[in-house]
Amino acid sequence: MSDEIRRAVGVLAPGGVVEVRALADGATHSGYFDDHEALARAVEALDADPAVAGIYVTLNTVNPSLLARRANRIKMRLSRKDATTADADILGRRWLPVDIDPVRPSGVSSTDAEHAAALDAAGRIAAYLTEQGFPEPLRADSGNGAHLLYRIDLANDEAATEVVKGVLATLDALFSNDTITVDTANYNAARIWKLYGTMSRKGDSTPERPHRRAKVLSVPPEMEIVPLERLRHLAELLPKDEPPKKSSGIDLARWLAEHGLAVRSTRPWQGGTLYVLDECPFSGAHKDGAFAIQFANGAIFAGCHHQSCGGGAQRWPELRAMYEPKPTRKQEETPTPPPDEYHDRALAILQHGDPLAFLLDTFNKTHVGDRTVAESLAMSIASQSVENTNGLHVAISGNSGKGKTHACTTMQNLIPEAYRLKGTVSDKALYYDDDLQAGTVLLFDDVALSDDLQEVLKSATTNFREPIEHRTLTTERKLRVCTIPARCVWWLAKVEDMGDDQVMNRMLTVWIDDSVEQDKRVLAHMKEREAAGRDPADDDILVARAIWEAVKEETLPVWIPFARRIEFSTTQNRRNPGMLFDLIKCHARLFYLQRDRDEDGAVVAREEDFWAAAKLYSALSGAAGGQETKLTKNEAAALATVARMGVEVFTVRGLQSALGLSYQKTRRILQGYVSRGTTYSGLLEKCPAISLYDASVTEDGGAGITVRRREQFFTFDNEVYRAWSGGTFVWLDDDPDVDSNDSRFQQSDSSCCQRENARKGDHSKDAPQHEDIHPYDHTHVQQNEGTESTHEATRSDDGGARVSDVAVTQHENVPDHEQNRETSQVLRPLIDSTCCQRAETCCHSPPPVNPRDSIALPVAKDEPCHVCGRRPTSSVKRGGGGEYLCYDCLTKAKRPAKVQPLPGVLDHRTFERVKTELGRCDVCGAKKAIYRSREVQTNICDQCYARLVREWNRGEGVR
């Protein structure tokens, strides 16, 4: 044995220092040697220890200074502070190591058949490398597999590492199969190698899987050095970059099967799939060597690694021509559409049309209705191409069989195939799917999200712009870093809750339309399709895919220059404003060819992007989704049913009867449930209007027997529910950069009649003037039958007129809280100043404006504002009627005025102290509001609240 060891060391490390490293059960032994005799004696002693699994040496030239670590001796059981040879300790590369291992379970020795398969594969690889211009290698038996060692002379630098890494990757791609593998991990400079002449002990030695001694099989008379150009040629043999995609639309796996080309093995390659063919179709002189690759973009590369077959050159056109029949004369005469037809149509739509409307219309050719669902999914796809976003992910809820899955798959069909993941997938499979690429749409259809999958989703949404890495050990105890690519969006479709609150807060929450009217529309669509006998034409679908291909070509930042002007009616959920900003960016990104760019190349969003995003955001917070409340469709329907019932107390059975659902399902909606260790919240946790209490119920059991039982009762506060579920709306405030003296925002304070004339557009000199009426230092009380109205006029800071008013209207048979609610409707700015009775003949108060009654126009309209008469206008009243509003009047209507309430108007008992941010006091406008009344929708500060209490104590607050 000593002779075999000396021979091996003399070949592997003919001069200089070499490290010996032995791996035992839970321990590492190591020493440095420049004395081969001492090395042989030390190794013999180690090899006699049955606990030592293998003995290894460094292959490449080691820094001689390392001898001082453990000079010509072995230190047993190294501690953590005992260093071994690192890559930086290697002075130069001397060997190219090729390790061929048989495929077998980890931790065991190979069988004789597996061992022989590895030696046979080594012969094939050596023959191929000889054909590539490589000299004869050192051939060896590792004990379980086979070794090939080629002499090289390279520096220890990054370029040399990439060359060695590329060579091993090429050999792995061409020769690894389900029987043997070429180890690609042997590219680092400090790699240790089996010392021939020693025993390989993997697991226990059995007759079927015995321990074997590693040995040198053959050494050439002269070890020639492999030329660097041969190494580079082999490392670059297979294409690393995707070729330009052709318009063939071929599925390579199906094409090979249809034409009888057997595939020996498949493996991921550069985002695509590499197929190693069983026989070479290009030559009869050899069988092995042929391969074909389909890249992620659909492009195909085919060739053979033998020099006689092109040495890896592209031969796919030739291969296709060999197996596909030539077109007939009729086929040749039939004109085919140019390959760029769909791209040209898509480009025209992106440049001059409405790409979003086209995508939604194409969606509705297959899936009827659910326009809000489709727009949410489209914005989610667009978010993948916005640089400065955390992505938009969609959660769709609705009853079973109402079209959630169909809506998602229909929208998926509009994007290129490479960007959609088909079928279900587990959390671990996501990491191990090598075909998954950046910008993929992941659909989870009625899948209960495990805790691990929820954590993956949270990580994917938080680190949207970066891949998610997962480090694990393979069966061979080698480190593997698995990743989920960046910019993947998640679509969740489920009847009930998707997951915990942290998951739902990251999603656009939208409901499928499961109404009776939608059922009728779907049925009519199905009848039409069956009567036509065919599906809708694919032309628009291909154009839609071309639109997404164009959008996905680059990731662009989007700038919202008017972001400071965006106002929200509520900001309790801090993630929702970010989602609105992302919706604006995504809409602008989809219209990027119709938007300006700044000096850094960012797409500049317009106000029309805001209005489009605001419309979708409002729909998601209203009738089409639970963005603010995070309710599913069934939960929202349950709350609406209770509100319509008009009850303050109900039971599960009572609600079950009204909903028509099972008792168990109704109970789960109210109280939530636990499934597979995951807790799903119910309405008790989500909605503050519902509470629960237990009570004892006494019933007559008959025959004079009284039965007592426990019953759960739910209370429902309709006022709290209306305030909580009132939805949210957003608007654009006045531009803060505009000077307050700008004529667009300043009203004349000469007289109320002048303002009214300006509103009507009458600028004649004959218009009546009332110079004797001062615009801001008088108060008048108007008495009407059954109505008392008080107006207080105060001077504003800028000298203009500002009205601070509360109108108190008393009606017979109207409860106090209803009067308070009416009071809340007038806590809004009155346009212009009050008018005295003397001027009533020529000056009328502008009509009241409710912002919720107005719909934003996509573009400004040249119509007069029905309040001030100015043009153009930006919104119109719902339901028609031709009442248009300009931007200024709509903005003023959205701002509550500062009011001084009259005694009896506000009841301190309806206010409660809250911890949420309420803004400034609605009464004084000076201090921070900390009390809120849901009944009159008013927020006040502590001083105003104290005044209400004092007035009540004095008896002034009692009617």
User: Total domains, how many?
Assistant: 6
Number of strands: 41
Q: What's the N-to-C terminus distance?
A: 112 Å
The CATH class of the largest domain is identified as: Alpha Beta
The residue-averaged pLDDT reads 75
Largest sheet: 6 strands, antiparallel
Query: What class do helices, strands and sheet pairing give?
Result: alpha+beta
Percent strand: 15-25%
- CATH architecture name of the largest domain: Alpha-Beta Complex
Overall, the morphology is elongated
Number of H/I helices: 28
The helix content is 25-40%
Computed over alpha carbons, the radius of gyration is 39 Å
Biased composition (Polar residues): 743-754
InterPro entries: P-loop_NTPase (IPR027417)
Biased composition (Basic and acidic residues): 756-780, 788-800
Region (Disordered): 740-801
Concise synopsis of the structure shown:
The chain is an alpha+beta fold and about 950 residues long.
Explain what the structure shows.
- With 959 residues, the chain is an alpha+beta fold.
- The chain folds into six domains: 2-234, DNA primase, PRIM domain, CATH 3.90.920; 238-333, no CATH class; 344-554, P-loop containing nucleotide triphosphate hydrolases (Rossmann fold, 3-Layer(aba) Sandwich), CATH 3.40.50; 636-724; 764-897, no CATH class; 901-959.
- The chain is built from 28 helices and 41 strands.
- Strands 4, 5, 6, 7, 8 and 12 form a six-stranded antiparallel beta sheet that branches. A five-stranded parallel beta sheet has the order 18-19-22-17-23, with helices on both faces. It has a four-stranded antiparallel beta sheet with strand order 2-1-3-9, with helices on one face.
- A hairpin with a 4-residue loop joins strand 40 and strand 41.
- Helix 1 (2-12) packs across helix 2 (36-47) and helix 21 packs across helix 22 (663-671).
- The radius of gyration is 39 Å and the shape is elongated.
